[in-house]
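testing teh design pipeline on a random one, pls ignore if ur not involved
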């Protein structure tokens, strides 16, 4: 009898976890992602799923994996942005994330020769205030982007960015200071 109860408890916990993940995906990635969902309904779905989104605009087509997301006020997340927030993702106020950008908190360690994708690992991402992430840019796990940065379209950010600098390239490197004199950084 005790074995049956233990089995039942384990199955019940798994079922509860499954239904929580499923309800999150329905609210965020079906209702919230849809192009026909009105903005007000999209925000109700996001908030019901536990996302912390202040007065901001998240356009249709965005995919959000996980619920560890904080978006401050006056932020624009454009169409088809992918946000993996298995670890904390913070987006500061007055920031613009252009279409088809990727913000990814998870990766894998290198595995053995028979399976190169090893154990999964996650690290938080923080995007400061007043930033602009260009179209198709990728922000990798563990990155902090300082206030007022511009990340050029198509760039891959794999290390921290100091404030008020334009970054471009693969990997993203500092190109130009955006504060004070407009001098090149080389």
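output:
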């Amino acid at each position: 009898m005790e074995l049956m109860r233990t089995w039942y408890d384990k199955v019940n916990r798994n079922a509860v976890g499954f239904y929580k993940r499923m309800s999150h995906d329905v609210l965020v990635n079906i209702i919230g992602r849809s192009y026909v969902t009105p903005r007000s309904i999209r925000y109700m779905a996001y908030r019901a799923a536990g996302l912390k989104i202040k007065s901001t605009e998240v356009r249709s087509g965005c995919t959000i994996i996980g619920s560890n997301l904080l978006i401050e006020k006056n932020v624009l997340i454009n169409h088809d942005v992918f946000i993996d927030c298995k670890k904390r993702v913070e987006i500061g106020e007055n920031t613009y994330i252009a279409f088809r950008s990727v913000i990814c908190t998870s990766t894998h360690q290198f595995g053995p020769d028979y399976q190169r994708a090893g154990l999964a690992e996650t690290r938080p991402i923080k995007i400061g205030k007043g930033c602009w992430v260009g179209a198709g840019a990728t922000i990798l796990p563990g990155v902090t982007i300082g206030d007022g940065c511009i990340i050029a379209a198509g760039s891959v950010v794999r290390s921290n960015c100091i404030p008020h600098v334009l970054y471009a390239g693969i990997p993203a490197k500092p190109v130009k200071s955006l504060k004070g004199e407009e001098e090149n950084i080389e």
